[in-house]
Amino acid sequence: MSAESFATDLNHQLEHSAAIRKFAYEKFIGEHAGEFGRADYIAVILFNRCLQTHEATEILARRSFIDDAWVLVRALVEYAVNCLYMMMVADAQTAEDFVDLPKYKRYDNLKRLKRTNENLLRQSYSEEEEEELRQEFDAVSSRFHKKDGDKWCADHNISKRAAKVDEKDWSGDTREAQLLAVARRLSMATREHLRSRNGRCPR
Amino acid sequence: MADALADQSRSIKDGVLVERHYKPEEGAEVVHSANLTLCFVIPLIDHLLGGKNAEEISLVVRKWSGQS
Hints:
The structure holds two protein chains of two kinds.
Chain A: H1 3-7, H2 10-28, H3 38-62, H4 66-88, H5 92-116, H6 118-124, H7 127-144, H8 158-167, H9 174-198
Helix pairs in contact in A: 2-3, 3-4, 4-8, 4-9, 5-6, 5-7
Chain B: H1 2-6, E1 9-12, E2 15-18, H2 24-48, H3 54-65
Antiparallel strand pairs in B: 1-2
């Protein structure tokens, strides 16, 4: 059987879907000794998220919800690209911004709700809670206020981050260069699949 | 979006027929893409966490892609 026919064999894909994920959980989810920066921690958390979304995709596919499964694949690719970006490109400030952006967004959303329906807001947040969120917002807002797109990153959308990951040159290290070559081929193939589905994939 | 919706309905003589289409190949394609994405990240996560599983990763990926 050719590699192409394996790709269109549902039983083969489902069987290996579970096997790949089981392997990943066994090897990577748990304790790991070493020195890791904040971007590394975020990468590992995003990878864990990849595993969950991968499983959810498989469940939908098993139940024949194919278009819904594609929606999850789109989300999975975003987690994967952001995970790789954190590992390969992001600096410490980008990692800090990724972590702190929810503080900005929470109060920003709260302000919108307040303008629309303050009574509804009060059902969810007391004045004291609102004030706490405002203080968190004030502490970080200057870092996000005028930024475009996803705000936490100079490469402010998923396409730009995927491009940065692709541009990464590790040619000085044979093993890493090999890994990256594999990753690029897989990345291109995945994006081609998504492009053919909905035209909204990265790059 | 429109394509996905169009797949599920068609005009018939006296109106419209709404139906649910499913082909196993479509299921294979979506799971293949999910697997591909995960296999894209796994070697680099392994590298970040010490790079102890390169051979096993290679075997898992080769089995999945039908190269082993």
